[in-house]
Amino acid sequence: MSPQTAAPLDIEGVTVAFGAVKALDDVSFSVQSGHVHGVIGPNGAGKSSLFNVISGVYRPSAGEVRLDGMALTKLRPHEVAGLGIGRSFQNVDLAGEESVLESLLVGRHDLMRSGVTAVMLGLPRARREEREHKARVTEIADFFGLADHLDRPLHELPYGQQKLVDVARAVCMEPRLLMLDEPAAGLDEAETDTISEIILDLRSALDLTVLLIEHDMGMVMKICDHLTVLDFGRRISDGTPSAVQSDPAVASAYLGTGEAAEIETGTAP
Amino acid sequence: MSDRLQKWDSRLLVTRALAVLGVLLLLVAPLYLEEFWLRLGFTACGAAIGALGLNILTGAAGQLSLAHAFFLAVGAVTYSWLAGDPDPAIGPTGLGWPPVVAMAMAIVVTAAVGLLVSPISSRLSGLYLGIASLALVFIGQHLLATLSGITGGFQGRSAPTFSVFGFEFSNQSELLVLGVPFGRYERLWYLGLLLLAVSAWAGRNLLKSRHGRAFRMIRDKELAAAVSGISVRRGKQNAFVVSSALAGLSGALFAIAIGSIAPVSFSLDVSIQYLVMIVIGGMGTVTGSILGAAVVTALPILTQRYGGVFPLVGDVVSPAAAARYLYGGALIAVLMLQPRGLAAVAGLVRRRAPSNSASEARPIAGGRAPVDPPTDTDALERKAPIT
Ligand SMILES: Nc1ncnc2c1ncn2[C@@H]1O[C@H](COP(=O)(O)OP(=O)(O)OP(=O)(O)O)[C@@H](O)[C@H]1O
Ligand SMILES: [Mg+2]
């Protein structure tokens, strides 16, 4: 496996259409390696669609996505993941009986090698591999404050911790690029602060690039190095948080959405 | 806290003791049971292996398959043909291979057939896969009827007795154990138990492994699975091949149990019976496969034999019909009372001890309990992925 370091990401002219709706319309921007890069915009702006394009779930009708110069757009989702892109989801849907540990171990799937026959026969190397990865997952869970809950079924955890598990699962993939889709949605202020801290610590401890979708402007302004703003599938602004904040195009996009005040003051409601 | 732990410990001890007792009883059973029960036991063991296969595919990986009867047939035919007598005077010829080799080949060939169809099956899911797999059953019926040189056609063919290194699983050679004659079904009883134990162990290993986790993730959240680095097609293919391999073994055991094979034994009914086994037993679990197979195998045979003790059976309804009503009733009862199957009922007794925190603060789902702050932020350092 190649040494995993933070990687720059290039989005170039990406267009995705669902019938008449253009979820993304000729969107281009670059993500610097080591940055926490925020993607913001009103509901339906195309943020999650952008993540889906990057992770290979949606195939764009035009444009290209490159990680470290390598085109991702032709790859299937698990192949994109294999290049070191971990992703958490906007909606956690954790109805299953799976324990926290098992959910986190799912993130290790591609880092593990044992074949079907080896695990069925309980070969020593398969057992050893399982042990080693459990140890690493426990370490990561510890970092997220989840270590005490590893054996609990996911659905028993409070919502905030379920969201953390989803982020932790992405981190368990040992990604170079971590994509988080609204990790603070539904969390209270204290929880939002915690997740902000976790993101910054992860970035420095693991040398990650973070791509973050978030509606909480306070959080975005606080932790992002760079922002890209989408509206109706188009990139309407791109720059440092303070530059974006004073961009009139951004203010008008948010006008009437109730988030306009947040944008200007940079505070959570 | 500590006496609670002790309580769990003693419960665990009781379960262990019960398990050991159960195994001992199974091991000495041939000394006491008559042929009827031993034969039923062997049949159930074979069915349980098949059910385990289907449960890995449909229960764990969520791929609805109606093709199980087809794969059972491939196993049964492969065994019967490879081990069959080469002498053409006694029906369709065989290759006269040692039965152990034939049984191993039944597994390999059936797994290979599973692999062969998996490019199609792994691109389909849900009802579409169900319907497509249905086609395999019909193809199987057609092949069974037409390849009469191998299968014996409509009448079917005999299936050779099993033997290992000259030890025959038949009444041929005299064998007395503690004064009890050990004939065909005494011997087969142990063969069935051994093969089931090995299959169950391997199945459990699989379900606990990265592949088992991938199966369940593909079943529950296919998209999240893919984005987490799981090749969905590969995962479905793995489940399909393992399921076929176990069906191949199960088919061979079926042929051995009956002593012959015929197309009617591998009709669509059989596929559905296997689905019933895993549903009432418990989806995605090894225990469920075994319990479900035991119930579905035993129910019709037992009602046939003992149905007479119930009023009406024999006069108003035939024992066979009574078995079907009972079967349907049991199915509905389990689905309504315990949708997670008999394994979950058994699980009420045998459950993991809860972690301490789980019992102390049970959070309200969707609540906003504060997230524990990370205790030691320096603990997480960049590590090369473990190789
Ligand atoms: N699979 C799909 N099929 C049809 N339309 C889609 C699909 N995915 C997204 N869309 C449409 O594309 C547009 C952008 O959706 P997207 O989910 O990317 O927005 P978003 O910025 O993530 O919004 P939110 O902040 O509400 O999560 C919306 O109009 C949405 O209805
Ligand atoms: Mg979204």
TrEMBL record, chain A:
**Ranges where the ABC transporter domain occurs:** 9-257
A single GO cellular-component term on record: plasma membrane
Query: So which domain of life are we looking at?
Result: Bacteria
The question of whether Secreted is a record keyword is answered with no
| PROSITE patterns tied to this protein | ABC_TRANSPORTER_2
Q: Name one GO molecular function term.
A: ATP hydrolysis activity
Return the InterPro entries for the record: AAA+_ATPase (IPR003593), ABC_AA/LPS_Transport (IPR051120), ABC_transporter-like_ATP-bd (IPR003439), BCA_ABC_TP_C (IPR032823), P-loop_NTPase (IPR027417)
> Which Pfam families does UniProt cross-reference here?
ABC_tran, BCA_ABC_TP_C
Against CDD domains, the record matches this protein to: ABC_Mj1267_LivG_branched
Tell me yes or no: is Nuclease among this UniProt entry's keywords: no
Protein name as catalogued: Amino acid/amide ABC transporter ATP-binding protein 1, HAAT family
| Keywords attached to this entry | ATP-binding, Nucleotide-binding, Transport
From TrEMBL, chain B:
Output the Gene Ontology cellular-component terms.
plasma membrane
Instruction: Select a single GO molecular function from the record's annotations and give it.
Output: branched-chain amino acid transmembrane transporter activity
Q: Where in the cell is it found?
A: Cell membrane
Please list where the region (Disordered) is annotated: 354-387
Q: Transmembrane stretches, by residue range?
A: 12-32, 38-57, 64-83, 95-117, 124-144, 188-207, 239-262, 274-302
Q: Classify the protein's membrane topology as the record does.
A: Multi-pass membrane protein
Q: Which InterPro entries match?
A: ABC_transp_permease (IPR001851), LivM-like (IPR043428)
Keyword list (alphabetical) reads:
Cell membrane, Membrane, Transmembrane, Transmembrane helix
Q: Which Pfam families match?
A: BPD_transp_2 (PF02653)
Q: Does the keyword Acyltransferase apply?
A: no
Record protein name field = Amino acid/amide ABC transporter membrane protein 2, HAAT family
